[in-house]
Amino acid sequence: MFIGRDKELKALNNLYNSGKFEFAVIYGRRRIGKTELIKQFIDDKNAIYFMGIESNAKLNLENLSKSILEYNSGISTETSFANFQVALEYVFQLAEKERIVLAVDEYPYVARSSKSLASTLQLLIDKYKDRSKLMIILCGSSMSYMEDHVLAYKAPLYGRRTAQLKLLPFTFEETCSYLRGMSDEDKALMYGAVGGTPQYLLQIDDQRSVEDNIKNTYLNPTSFLYEEPTNLLKQEVREPAIYNAIITAIATGASRMADISTKVGENTSVCTNYIKNLISLGIVQKETPYGERASRKTIYSISDNMFRFWYRFVLENNSIIARGADDLAYKKIKPFFTDYMGKVFEDIAVQYLWKLLLTGQSPVEFTSLGRWWGNDPRTRSQTEIDIMGEQDKNTAFFAECKWTNEKVDLSVLETLVQRSELFAYKNVHLFLFAKSGFTKGCMDKAAELGNVNLITYADILKN
């Protein structure tokens, strides 16, 4: 079942319908659904699809030749073009007569095997772009390669592309459309456990409980997800052991660079470089208090839910899991699941707030959202705000999120009011997000204040 990617498909079809030469770059981390997007796009079109393999130039050229000749003649053949330039020029010439899509999947494998491939493409694009109806798609999972050797200013292909699409994990709303057989609460729990990466969602059975799904995936030594983080790191980076140590340090509570480097046993300059790579892979995120661009308060957290869940729960129970004790392992996880879901619910609330803005329903026209933390001079203690967003120097909003089975009471609203007063905005709007609703006292006070939005998890799903 193909879900989501409506914007990406629309963008690709707009390029296709232009009728002129187009060159799109699709990139994103592994398992994100790039290949499925391409296949969905070319399904009803004249297209040559070729997937590069991690081999030498000769074998990649042979495979490309087969794809081209099968398209043109409709039969499989062992004949090969003399080199990549001859093969690609043949496609450019075919596309002078008809609209053709040439999709090169896993382009980095091919380009690494043939160092001159990028320059060859540059030459042919410059030669044929004004008279060719070819639409080229270059796709790759190696984020660093695609950014440095295809998109970067110094890359031979710079300036030739007409579009680039960076595929991200599904939103919570898109994920729910895949997990439609689950209860509303279970949808959130599974999103918290596996995130919105399509390949991970395929491991989930929406006709079974969260417990069964976690046991069948993370707590099953033979499952796809059991060793997925370590396998993914081995494919993406050269020194997976250090990366693994850094992610483990962050997952177990080290959020500041000094604390991370101490846990890992490397100096901060070394850790900084590794963390930059983890950020580019979409595994780790860097955060500063909202409104502060550069700050000593910078912290790091795991942004990908699958990695966050695995390093929080699976790694520490690995010995138990390896012995087949999935019941015992889940028993150890369950008491901490609600606390774990706090950050997940904040992410869901952030996505909801962006949707309000984009549909014209937000009372504050913010340009960015973020967490804030700092010192409260009144209490001389550290405090934080889950989400805030600013429209201008006079208008902002503040939000608090609670993923608990109890209804949110008046004290939570009063605390948010107090924290909002740490800032000098004249027009303030408050949001409270609750899994289970609000007490009468909280609702009465919200009505009295007049600037409070009370949002339940059920409200998010309805919107």
Describe this protein with a few key phrases:
Trna Endonuclease, Chain: A, domain 1; five-stranded mixed sheet; Rossmann fold; 463 residues
Q: Could you tell me the number of beta strands?
A: 12
Q: Roughly how many Å is the radius of gyration?
A: 25 Å
* Amount of helix: 40-55%
Taking the alpha carbons of the first and last residues, their distance comes to 24 Å
Average pLDDT, all residues: 94
Instruction: Indicate the CATH class of the largest domain.
Output: Mainly Alpha
Shape: globular
CATH topology of the largest domain: Arc Repressor Mutant, subunit A
Number of domains: 3
Largest sheet: 5 strands, parallel
Main-sheet strand order equals 2-3-4-1-5
- Portion in strands: 15-25%
Describe the structure concisely for a colleague.
With 463 residues, the protein is an alpha/beta fold. The chain is 48% helix and 16% strand. It has three domains: 6-166, Rossmann fold, CATH 3.40.50; 172-343, Winged helix-like DNA-binding domain superfamily/Winged helix DNA-binding domain (Arc Repressor Mutant, subunit A), CATH 1.10.10.10; 355-462, Trna Endonuclease, Chain: A, domain 1 (3-Layer(aba) Sandwich), CATH 3.40.1350.
